[in-house]
C-alpha cells in the first residue's frame, strides 16, 4: 500500500506541474498594447485611444525638412479604435478615426497672412503598431481613400486651397513608452491640387503624448510591448 501511495503522489505532482489542473497558474499573455504599464492589462479590442500634442510641442508642416517656410499648429489631437490587439511581440491594428489641427499660423509663406483650416480627409485610416525594437506606427490609406489633407490659407489674393496626399500613401511614426508618445518626423506629403503658391511638398512633424485608453476609467496610458 505504501508503494502505491508513493506512486500516486508522484503522479499527482507531475500533473500539477504540467498545469493540467487549474490550480497550476498560467502566465497571462501580454499583448502588443497594454494599459497602465508595460506588461500590464491588455488593451481590449474596441477600446478608444487618443492623444493631444505633447506639452510644449507643435504640429508643423514645412516646405522642406526643417525649412524656413512652414505652418505651425499648437493644438492637434488624434483618436483611434483598437481593432486587433495581438500577443507580443507582434503588430497590433487600429483604425485612425480622428485627427484635427487648430490654432495654426503661417511663417515665411509669401502673401499668406493666416491659416483658415487644416482638415484631414478620407478618415478612417488603417493603422498598425509594432512591438519593440521597431516601435513603428504606420498609417496607411487606400487607392480609393488616400491619406489626404486640405489646407485653406488667407492671402492678399483671397483664399488659397492646397490639397496634399501622403507620399507612398503612408505616414510613419515611432512609439515610445517614455511619456507614452508617438513621434512623426518629416513625413512627406505631395501637392495633389492647388496653385503654385502652395508648397510643392509638405513635411509633417509632431509628437503626441500621452496616448491613453479613454474607454477605461481614469484613461490609463497605453504602452507598447
Tag the structure with descriptive keywords.
225 residues, 13-stranded antiparallel beta sheet, 1 helix, elongated, disordered N terminus
Summarize the structure.
This protein is mainly β and about 220 residues long. About 10% of the residues lie in helices and about 50% in strands.
Amino-to-carboxy terminus distance: 53 Å
Mean pLDDT: 91
Counted beta strands: 15
Number of structural domains: 1
Alpha-beta content class: mainly beta
Helix content: under 10%
Beta-strand percent range:
over 45%
Shape, please? elongated
Sheet with the most strands, sense and barrel status: 13 strands, antiparallel
Please describe what this structure looks like.
There is one protein chain. This protein is mainly beta and 225 residues long. It has one domain. It is built from one helix and 15 strands; from the N terminus they run αβββββββββββββββ. The strands form two sheets. Strands 2, 3, 4, 5, 6, 7, 8, 9, 10, 11, 12, 13 and 14 form a 13-stranded antiparallel β-sheet that branches. β3 (59-62) and β4 form a beta hairpin. The radius of gyration is 24 Å and the shape is elongated. Residues 1-7 and 10-26 have low confidence and may be disordered.
Amino acid at each position: 500500500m505504501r508503494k502505491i501511495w508513493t506512486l500516486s503522489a508522484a503522479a499527482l505532482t507531475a500533473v500539477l506541474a504540467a498545469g493540467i489542473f487549474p490550480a497550476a497558474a498560467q502566465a497571462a499573455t501580454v499583448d502588443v498594447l497594454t494599459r497602465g504599464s508595460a506588461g500590464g492589462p491588455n488593451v481590449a479590442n474596441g477600446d478608444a485611444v487618443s492623444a493631444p500634442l505633447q506639452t510644449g510641442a507643435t504640429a508643423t508642416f514645412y516646405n522642406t525638412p526643417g525649412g524656413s517656410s512652414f505652418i505651425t499648429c499648437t493644438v492637434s489631437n488624434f483618436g483611434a479604435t483598437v481593432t486587433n490587439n495581438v500577443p507580443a511581440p507582434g503588430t497590433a491594428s487600429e483604425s485612425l478615426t480622428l485627427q484635427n489641427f487648430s490654432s495654426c499660423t503661417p511663417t515665411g509663406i509669401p502673401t499668406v497672412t493666416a491659416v483658415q483650416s487644416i482638415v484631414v480627409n478620407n478618415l478612417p485610416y488603417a493603422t498598425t503598431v509594432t512591438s519593440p525594437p521597431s516601435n513603428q506606427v504606420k498609417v496607411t490609406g487606400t487607392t480609393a481613400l488616400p491619406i489626404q489633407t486640405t489646407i485653406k490659407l488667407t492671402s492678399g489674393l483671397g483664399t488659397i486651397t492646397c490639397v496634399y496626399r501622403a507620399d507612398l500613401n503612408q505616414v510613419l511614426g515611432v512609439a515610445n513608452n517614455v511619456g507614452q508618445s508617438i513621434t512623426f518626423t518629416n513625413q512627406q506629403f505631395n501637392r495633389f491640387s492647388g496653385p503654385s503658391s502652395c508648397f510643392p511638398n509638405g513635411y509633417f512633424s509632431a509628437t503626441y503624448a500621452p496616448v491613453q485608453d479613454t474607454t477605461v476609467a481614469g484613461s490609463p496610458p497605453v504602452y507598447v510591448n
